[in-house]
Amino acid sequence: MLLALTVPLVAVPLVVAARRRPNLRESVTLIAATLQFGLVVSLAPQVMDGARPAVILAEPFPGLPLALALEPLGLLFALIASFLWLITSVYSIGYMRGHKEQHQTRFYAYFAIALAAVMGVAFAGNMLTLFVFYEVLTLSTYPLVTHAGTDQARRAGRVYLGLLLGTSIVFLLLAIAWTWLLAGTTDFTPGGILSGTAPAATLGLLLTLYVFGVGKAALMPFHRWLPAAMVAPTPVSALLHAVAVVKAGVFTILKVSVYLFGSGLMITLVASQWLQYVAAATILLASLVAMRQDNLKARLAYSTISQLGYVVLGALLANAAGIVGSAMHIATHAFGKITLFFCAGVILVATHKTEISQMRGLGRRMPITMMAFLIASLSIIGLPPAGGTWSKWYLAIGTLEAGQLALLAVLMISSLLNIAYLLPIPLHAFFSAPSGDNVPGGTYEAPLFSLAAIIITTLGCLVLFFYPGPLYQLASQIGR
Amino acid sequence: MATVLGLYNYWIAIFLMMTGFYVVIAHGNLVKKIVGLNIFQVAVFILYISMGKVRGGSAPILAEGVTSYSNPLPHVLILTAIVVGVATTALGLALVIRINEAYGTVEEDDIHSQDEPE
Amino acid sequence: MQLGQHLPILQVVIPLLSAPLCLLLRNGRLAWMFTLAVSWLVLAGAVWLLLQVLAHGTVSYALGTWPAPWGIEYHLDHVSAFVLLIVSGISAVVLPFAGKSVAREIPADRVSLFYTLYLLCLTGLLGIVITGDAFNLFVFLEISALSSYALISQGRDRRALTASYHYLILGTIGATFILIGVGLLYMMTGTLNMQDLAARLPAVTDTRTVRTAFAFLVVGISLKLALFPLHLWLPNAYTYAPSVVTAFLAATATKVGVYVLLRFVFTIFGAAFAFQAMSLGPILLVLALLAIFNASTVAIFQDNLKRMLAYSSVAQIGYMVLGISFASLTGLTAGILHLFNHALMKGALFLALGAVFYQLGTVQLTQLRGLGRRMPWTMAAIVIGGLSLVGVPLTVGFISKWYLILAALESGWWPVAVLVLLGSLLAMVYIGRLVETAYFHAPPEDDREVREAPLSMLLPIWTLILANLYFGIDTSLTVGVARQAAALLLGVSP
Fold first, then answer.
1. Contact C183 B51 (CB under 8 A)
2. What is the DSSP letter of C202?
3. Is the preceding peptide bond at C282 cis, omega within 30 degrees of 0?
4. How far is C237 from chain B (nearest CA, A)?
5. Tens of pLDDT along C297-342?
6. ipTM of this predicted structure
7. How far is CA C282 from CA C223, C279, C295, in A?
8. What is the CATH number of the domain that holds B79?
9. Nearest CA distance, C41 vs chain A (angstrom)
10. Which of C161, C172, C173 sits opposite B102 (nearest CB)?
11. Domain that holds residue B57
12. Is residue B89 part of a domain?
């Protein structure tokens, strides 16, 4: 477990040292990513059997250590993140070289650090450890977001850092200190540690602090950083903002719900109901805004905000189906969104287009890309044959079990909106007359590496539909 | 009445203290400020020394047939404090000389206006 | 061991006697190396004394074998030993840096004089911490103060002179207030020994004299430690002083001021009197919060980086006093802990700024554009130090913040906890400005060849930065000692 965390950190000086030999440098990243994924996979069997290995790193406060402890949800997140790091690295090679980006060494190095932080978040054994790695993640992704070095990048970086650090310092840290005082520990324990420690109103306030303190979950009104961060190069947007950073956010909320509060307590808190409405509002509003965006990355960003709302909703519902749905949605959305971002990236590299209105008829020029886009869109919408079907199914069951028909309606409406803002893109690409210079005649497909990555992730979406078994098994073990 | 007159040493000390303090605050001339500071400090010294006097006590030197002595400790303390005060004054005046060399004036307002545009 | 027995007095005597010796060394380099050796010797002594205190409890030493309370006694408990470590440690780290920095900023014929003053200042600060006699404290306070005034006036800018002068006026008033307070206490109890005062005061605390003494002492000490609103001397003094002086004083002088406050309020007067009869808690709380917000906000608008960090220091002192104002075990631990942590943070930051000044000749923010590329190690140090100021996990700043929030929540003052965290956000803004300028903007056109700082400067800076990170993870030493010190001051078990 410790190794999975340190492998990317070790890779960092090697990447920097190899900065003059791009192929060597990229190989270092690929080897590190493969190693990391291998290590995480090797941990899977133990956890499925019920083992919960733990490691203590340091003890900065008496009685409050920095500790790692593995359990199903963490394993799930770690598996996704490490696998997708590998794929994204492959994709990045194609993108960064095709787009002739500057400062590639700095990019790969900070990427590695960020992934190490993600492992730390995934494996965190108590809330304090999670917080530490959460902050490290924010800081290590800042150079990635502001990679371009332009004024726009700088301003985006300000919003990014300001919102994320701000919410985490003012709300989350306060919540953690309060938890420590109430419960005497911040360890993640099945069944939670907070029941019975304080009156319901206090606990409700604490929950609110937690939910808003996790700015990475992009719950409105603290969501502005996500569209702002789209100024980053597409691999950054893809992995970090569709997979690692935002997933770390909703992962945290899910962990808080299951392991700090416990399902039993969550269901009784009135505050969790109100927060469910906030999540629902985020789902709807973000979808509506997405529909009005012409910039592809911006539309995808708002789509992410909306989808994250789904996971938060499941976490707040806190019943068995809700938790399973959330966990599965972390996985399915990861694959779906990353594919969509990858496609956006190669479209930029191959055709220099960023606006959706310019992408009509693109399907003839970039068939594989747009096909992948179509399948990934289906996953996000929640239609067969893509994996998103199952996660949305369980989330819907979760709302039914909780008796929240209004929320069920929200989920349905949102899916319809998803269709409205996602499907037209590939449909217009294939079936519309080309606009501008999208004249058919020879394909100008994406760079090879990037294409390979896209194909793998698209396959992932399909696999998750046809073989959801292992994912479901892992998800249902959460909280035991 | 006896209290007021009997405590005359304290009244003097307080009066001097306030005078000194006022001079430090109210005057803009750097040398005058130091003078004020000195008066302030001297007032404290007077306070201390007058504390040490024991009514009916003689000077604190061992002698035959004397039973009551004034307290010598405050004298010792104040000697130290006087030295400190002298050092402070010397340092302060040295600074004033250098300020005069650098600015050409020892009036606080003029110095301030010379630094303002920075 | 014969020598070991006399270690408390040697801690003061060695630097004191070295000062005139240094005066005789005309050569600047020789003076520097001599001072360096003395400082490291003192550090060794401080470490030894801390180990003694941790193993055997308080160390007591009677000067000239005159027994207390008639003789002057040196009394070392956990608080003193801790602050002693801070002062000597910072000095030992700052001096290697000073070699090149002083050589550039001070005229060659005055360098040995500079080091003489430095040794005197060190003597004063060490003496304040070790002594167990109230008047002796005043004497050492003045020794350190006078040498500080002289050191600050050595800055190149002529405003160093006026800054030093104002500091002299205000500092002397403060010291005189302390003298008045001590005098009134002497009047009521007949003793100057701190332990003896603590024993005799409870009988007379109900008198107006003692209350007045308390008031004078607190105001005088607050002037020395730059508590809002008595902090007005600090920004100018720190901005215009030579880099080494700023680094040294920022990391030690105000800490010693806090120490004096702790000594008088807790050991001599006792927490019960101070916080219940005199309501010190709310007063300190409000002033501390004002310090944090006012100073942090002003810092955001500063263009001169030294001035920005000076205001930041005022805010950080606010944090220390905030911890103290809770008068709880956690609160005091937080305050004492922050003494150490802030010394590490500000020491590193001011040294790094000193390196920038050495290479660039200026510390105006606009001149630092693009410095991240040209002086990578120095700027990286500033970034980490800045993150520590904000209170990011894995740095010492986080540890301090955590204990402060915990103390606030424990005492039921949760709005204060929120305010502390908002203060961190303000720190984020002014650090963010610095980071953006250094890393995002292109260097100005009149770009002379600016290289990274020399190794003799980078090593001390990075020593402090690594200490920042190390003590942010392994806090057994710092928190352990702080907790014991706090327990001792409050008279409870840790």
1. yes
2. G
3. no
4. 14
5. 998 898 889 999 999 999 999 999 999 988 888 889 999 999 999 9
6. 0.91
7. 18, 6, 19
8. 1.10.287.3510
9. 30
10. C161
11. 2-110
12. yes
